[in-house]
Design a protein that fits this description.
This protein has 8 helices and 15 strands. By secondary structure, the protein is of the alpha/beta class. Helix 5 packs antiparallel against helix 8. The structure holds nicotinamide-adenine-dinucleotide.
Length: about 325
């Protein structure tokens, strides 16, 4: 039988309670306990899952091999540093830290201690995105929209670090090229911080991504459109709907297509094939925590490691700073 990883959760607020729930059910995990500065909350979550409520982080760390850090972002560096110094593997919710220097410090420390940092960029595991693995993705243009009705939770950070960072991480993973130029603009509507933002990112390989994020919207929207030579894919993260349009020569066939239409393009008889890949229902948080446990056990690599978390934060902060320049 495989050895179970002794794990704990630090910060059991809105999201931390879900980490706790999943670890309590994962085959590879032995959930030892939780720690939260709010001891009342800590005890309530511990009682629900019949685990120990720790009164000090140090004591939780002496009984675990790995922890999830699900505290507010400004606490990530302090808490994760304490965990890594004790040789613990850490899953840090996104964004990895508040500053790039903090992320670099944690990455260097983890390297020295030989521990894993995984970052909670959960959209990488969104079921609607997984069909893209079947295609040779080389986008020329990516359009992303993430709009949400106003909620006070999460507004301690600007919208770029709260919502847009999800899409920045996805775009970086799809494009895999250094950034050449950024232009961005934004506005404060409900808070003292930027609530609505748009960024146009030009990459050195010629790809352009246009990302719009807002936390002041009537309806929730989470959509991505990927355009490249002979291929157009739309992903609706909320409706779990992925649609693929492929242009191929007329003599080729696509067994997965549910519809095709003739097209005369570039002087050739061609066809447009329409596919709607089957989306397997899955819980993205459960999958990413499973991935973390397996990474700790040396079976796989973390889906989003510390370096990827830092890269997304770095670009998010550059975008946010451009917006501040634009506003002033
Ligand atoms: P929350 O405020 O609901 O919960 C945070 C908890 O941490 C609170 O219970 C608080 O008492 C506790 N806490 C604060 N400082 C602490 C410390 N030093 N040690 C121990 N406990 C401490 O916040 P939340 O909405 O659950 O967000 C937590 C983190 O998760 C944030 O970094 C946020 O950006 C991230 N988040 C990610 C997603 C996602 O989609 N991946 C969604 C929501 C939140």
């Amino acid at each position: 039988m495989n050895k179970k990883t002794k794990i704990g959760v630090v910060g059991v607020g809105h999201l931390g309670q879900h980490h706790t729930k999943h670890y309590s059910n994962l085959d590879g995990a032995n959930l030892v306990g939780v720690f939260d500065l709010n001891q009342e909350r800590c005890k309530a979550v511990a009682t629900k899952y019949e685990i120990k409520a720790y009164e000090a982080l140090e004591d939780l760390l002496s009984n675990t091999e790995a922890v999830s850090v699900v505290t507010p972002t400004e606490e990530h560096k302090k808490v994760a540093e304490q965990c890594i110094k004790k040789g613990k593997h850490v899953f840090i919710e996104k964004p990895i830290t508040k500053t790039v220097a903090e992320a670099e410090l944690l990455i260097a420390l983890a390297k020295e201690k030989g521990t894993i940092i995984q970052v909670g960029h959960i959209e990488r595991l969104n079921a609607a995105l997984l069909p893209l693995e079947e295609f040779d993705i080389n986008p020329k243009y990516i359009e992303v929209q993430r709009l949400a009705p106003y909620m006070s939770r999460g507004t301690d950070v600007p919208v770029v670090l709260d919502l847009m960072i999800h899409d920045i991480d996805l775009v970086l993973a799809l494009v895999r090229s250094p950034v050449r130029e950024i232009s961005a603009s934004g506005i404060s509507i409900m808070t003292n911080s930027v609530d609505m933002a748009n960024a146009r990112i030009q990459f050195q390989n010629g790809t352009v991504a246009n990302i719009t994020s807002s936390r002041v919207a009537k309806d929730r929207v989470r959509k991505m459109k990927v355009f490249q030579q002979d291929l157009y894919i739309t992903v609706d993260f909320l409706r779990s709907l992925t649609e693929v349009y492929r242009v191929m020569d007329a003599d080729k066939s696509d067994p997965s297509a549910i519809m095709s239409a003739p097209l005369m393009s570039k002087g050739r008889h061609r066809q447009i094939f329409y596919e709607k890949p089957t989306i397997k229902k899955q819980d993205a948080l459960k999958m990413e925590l499973e991935n973390f446990i397996e990474a700790v056990q040396g079976k796989v690599k973390p889906i989003v490691d510390g370096a990827a978390g830092k890269e997304a934060l770095d670009l998010a902060l550059q975008i946010h700073n451009k917006i501040l320049e634009d506003i002033q």
